[in-house]
Design a protein that fits this description.
single chain; 313 residues; alpha+beta; 8-stranded antiparallel sheet; 14% helix
């Protein structure tokens, strides 16, 4: 089990909105939207293939790729969970994945989705979804490790039920910042503050990992609520993976001169991307209304003083 146990949607939404406006019989009334609809159809038809991008690494058959590679599922029962990892390693990128989480009584289960390097001074960028009793919200747990040091947890409730449909969870990772987003809404930003002595993940390539496993010793209400195995198997589903990223192979990046070239990235704006004022407002909205834990406000945890990056935010 990884050490992180405590751990392109805007275009899709535009397509969905255009469908809502147009319907399927009124496109002639909106000729300006036709190129968008064609592009949407191409995007839908050319989606990712999990056979090409990922290997199921454990679970004894509990992880499955279906629908000609369009969908991947992980399952958990009393004997074992399951997991997968990307075939490629990445050093910076914009990573999107759609997940539909374990429905019903998911107490005790954790669905982890993260980037991680190897070694004793590893880097890591985490999404972890902590299950709960039916009717109660999931907790979305985030963390950032740099040079083997984490302890940068922020936790959120979501503003929707993540078990009834797929939602897109994105990591933007460039040399200046890491931005966690849900359905193109930023929920967290971790800036590069090496200038004040805060290590930042920028030198170690990372793979994408995901796993579904039992953590009922801590995951739900601190371990008070245990996994109900009569509800097993528990299943999480994945689709529409996209990595607009620098692939690391044989000690070299597919992006030259520390910036992606036009030949290796269909849209390299992410390499220097930062949040505009609208995104910053969305981030504030999430953090004011849905954040339930922030290490930067936990003075009891840091009696010698909050970490230096907390004083800059």
């Amino acid at each position: 089990m990884p050490s992180s146990t405590f751990l392109s949607i805007s275009y899709s939404l535009l397509c969905e909105k255009s469908k809502d406006k147009m319907g399927y019989s009124s496109s002639s009334k909106f000729p300006l939207l036709m190129p968008l609809m064609v592009a949407c159809l191409i995007m839908a038809a050319s989606g990712s293939n999990f056979h090409n991008d990922f290997d199921i690494t454990w679970g004894d058959g509990r992880g499955k790729i279906a629908n000609n590679g369009e969908v991947l599922t992980l399952s958990l029962d009393k004997q074992s969970g399951s997991g997968f990892q990307s075939k490629n390693e990445y050093l910076f990128g914009k990573i999107d994945m759609q997940l539909k989480l374990v429905p019903g009584n998911s107490a005790g289960t954790v669905t982890a989705y993260y980037l991680s390097s190897k070694g004793s001074t590893w880097d890591e960028i985490d999404f972890e979804f902590l299950g709960n009793l039916s009717g109660n919200p999931y907790i979305l747990h985030t963390n950032v490790f740099s040079q083997g040091k984490g302890n940068r947890e922020q936790q959120f409730y979501l503003w929707f039920d993540p078990t009834t449909d797929f939602h897109t969870y994105s990591i933007l990772w460039n040399p200046q910042r890491i931005i966690f987003s849900v359905d193109d809404t930023p929920i967290r930003e971790f800036k590069n503050m090496e200038s004040i002595g805060v290590p930042f993940p920028k030198n170690q390539p990372m793979r994408i990992y995901s796993s579904l496993w039992n953590a009922d010793d801590w995951a739900t209400r601190g371990g008070l609520v245990k996994t109900d195995w009569t509800q097993a198997p528990f299943t999480a589903s994945y689709r529409n993976f996209n990595a607009d990223a620098c692939v690391w192979s044989n000690g070299a990046s597919s992006c030259k001169s520390n910036a992606p070239s036009s030949s290796t990235s269909t849209n390299n704006a992410w390499f220097s991307q930062e949040m505009d004022s609208a995104k910053q407002q969305r981030l504030q909205w999430v953090q004011q209304n849905y954040m339930i834990y922030n290490y930067c406000t936990d003075a009891k945890r840091f009696p010698q003083g909050l970490p230096p990056e907390c004083k800059m935010s």
